Amino acid sequence: MKDLNIIKIAVLFLLFQSFANNCEAQRKFKIDGTVTGLSDGKIYVLQGKKMDSVTVSKGKFQITGELEDPVEYIAIANTSNQRKMTEKAYVSLFAEASPMTLQLNYADFSKAKLKGSKAQDDVYKYDATTDKIRLKYKKELDQFDAIRKKYDDARAAKKSEEVLEAIKYEDNDARGRLEPMYKEYQNAAFQFMKDNPKSYYSLFLLRMNSRNLSYDEAKKYYESFNPLYKKGEMAKTLEAEIENMKKGVPGAPAGPFNTVDINGSPIKLDDFKGKYLLVDFWASWCVPCRKGNPHLLKLYAEYKPKGLEILGVSDDDRDHDKWKKAVEKDGIGVWKHVLRGYELKQGTYEKINPEKDISEGYNIHVLPTKILVDPNGIIVARYDGGEDDDARMDKDLATIFSGK
Amino acid sequence: MKKVIAILMILFALSVNAQVYNPVKWTTSVVKISESEYELIAKAAIEKGWHLYSQTVPEEGPLPTKFSFDGKGEYLKKGNTKEEEGHVVNDPIYGMKIKYFENKTIFKQRIKIKDKAPKQINANVEFMACDDTKCLPPKQVELLFKIK
C-alpha cells in the first residue's frame, strides 16, 4: 500500500478524529476482495485521517490495516478526489479482526457486500428495516428531492429573492411531511438497540440518537451493551457524551461558578440561593439572542419583584468591548452579566481552562439557551429548542409566580 | 441511492458530539492557473435555514468568516480571499447591513508558488453559523488543499 497525501473529506474527517487519537494499535484486519468492472487499477481506503491506495490486479485486491478499536470504521472509494466522491463512489464499512471478504462493483461502490464482519451484518440487518420505512415514504422523499432540485435550479438561474423565498416555504412543508419518517427511523434504532444490545452497531445507533433520550434512558441502553466494545475509543467518547447529558437538564443541580461580573464585582452561584434564577446563555454576535432581549426585559420587570433573577452568560471572551456595548445598547444592564470565562490556547480553539467555562457546567451547544434554576439550585427547565421556547418559558414563569 | 444518504447521515451525526449541530460542511479543491499560480477553493455546504457570514461584516455585527493560510514561505497569497455575492440584509437588531451566505458558497484564494509547489497547503477557517432562532459559537475547521 502506498501512502498518499492526507486527503480531507469533510464528511469523514471529524468522525475519525477520535479514532486517530488512539495510537495503541493492537490487532490487524484483512479483507480479501474481488471487483467487477475493473481488472487492473487502484481503489482507495480511508481510515482515520489516512488515505491509502490499494492495487487491484486481475479483479482482485487485499486491504489490510490496524485495528485501533475493536471494530474499525473504514471507507472504500473509487477515487481519491473528494470532489468526485459521489454517492456511488464510495462505501463505508465496519472492519473486524476475523477474515473478511468484499465484493465490489466498480460502477457503484454503494452496492458493496462485506462478509465476515458481525458489525457489518448488523448494519445490513438494520438497513433492511430502514429500507422498508423509506419505501413507505417514497412519495414524500421524491417530493422533497424535487423541491431541492427546483431550488438549486432557480438559484443557478439567478431567480429573484421572492421566487427563492417561495421555494423555501415549499421545502419547509416537504420537510414537515418527512417528520413521521424520522420518527420511525428513531424508533427503529431504539428497537434495534433493545433487540441487539451486544452488537457493535448499537453503540453507533445510540450515539446517533442520544439527542432524543434522557440521561437515564441513554445510560440504561449503554449498560446493556457488550463490555467487549466498551474498551474502545468510540465507547469512551460515547460515555463522555452520556455523562454530559446529566448537566444542564431538569432535575440536575445548576453548574457552580465563581467569577467576576461585568462591573468587576465577585459573583457566584450561591449568591442566587433562595431565588429563581434564569441563566441566559447569549453573545453580542448572536442575532436571535438579542432579538429576545426586549422580551426578557418584559419578563424581568414583571417577575423581579416576585423573586426572579436573571444572569446573562455571554460568549464574548474574545472581545469584552463588544459585550459591554451590546449590554448597554440592549438596555439589559438591569440584571447581572458575566462571561463564559474560558481562555483559548493561542491560535487554536483548544480550551486551556475548561473548568472555568460556565457553559461547560450546563452542556451548552447553541445560543440562546436559557436555564431556569429553582431557589435550591436545582434546574427546573431548559429552553434551547428554538421557536416555542419563549411560550414555554412564559408559561413556566407564570405558573411558578402565580399567587406570589 | 437513498441508502447511501442514510449512511451519510450517520457520518454527519457521528462527526460531532451527538448533541451538537453541524450545519456547515467544508470541502476543498485546487485549480492550476499557470506554472506558478494556483487557486485554492473552499466550498461550504450550508444546511437549509442556516447562514454563514461574510469575511467582512460591520464591526459590531456577527463574527466574520476568517481564513488563515499556513505559508511557511512556500508561497505568497495573491490578493485577498474572494467570496461570492451572497445576500445582504438590513438587520434591524444591529441596525446595519449584514452579508451572509446560504445553501452553498465558494471562497477562492489565489497563490503564487515561490520555488517548488508544495504537495499540500494547510489552512483553516473560523466561522459561526446562525439560523432564525439560534447561533452556533464560532469554531475552527482544518482545510487541506492538495496540489497535484
Automatic annotation (TrEMBL), chain A:
First and last residue of the signal peptide: 1-20
> Which PROSITE patterns does the record cross-reference, listed alphabetically?
THIOREDOXIN_1 (PS00194), THIOREDOXIN_2 (PS51352)
- Report the principal subcellular site: other
Gene3D superfamilies (alphabetical):
Glutaredoxin (3.40.30.10)
Q: Which CDD domains match?
A: TlpA_like_family
Q: Thioredoxin domain spans which residues?
A: 248-402
What keywords are annotated for this sequence in UniProt? Answer: Cytochrome c-type biogenesis, Disulfide bond, Redox-active center, Signal
Report the Pfam families cross-referenced here.
Answer: AhpC-TSA, DUF4369
Q: Any idea where this protein resides?
A: Cell envelope
Q: What is this protein called?
A: Thioredoxin domain-containing protein
Q: Which organism is it from?
A: Flavobacterium chungbukense
From TrEMBL, chain B:
Which Pfam families does UniProt cross-reference here?
A: DsbD_N
Superkingdom of the source species: Bacteria
**Which InterPro entries does this UniProt record tie to the protein?**
DsbDN, DsbDN_sf
Question: Mind listing the UniProt keywords for this protein, alphabetically?
Answer: Signal
- The stretch of residues making up the signal peptide is 1-18
Query: Where would I find the Thiol:disulfide interchange protein DsbD N-terminal domain in this sequence?
Result: 31-140
| Transmembrane residue ranges | none
What name does the UniProt record give this protein? Thiol:disulfide interchange protein DsbD N-terminal domain-containing protein
What lineage does UniProt assign to this protein's organism? Answer: Bacteria, Pseudomonadati, Bacteroidota, Flavobacteriia, Flavobacteriales
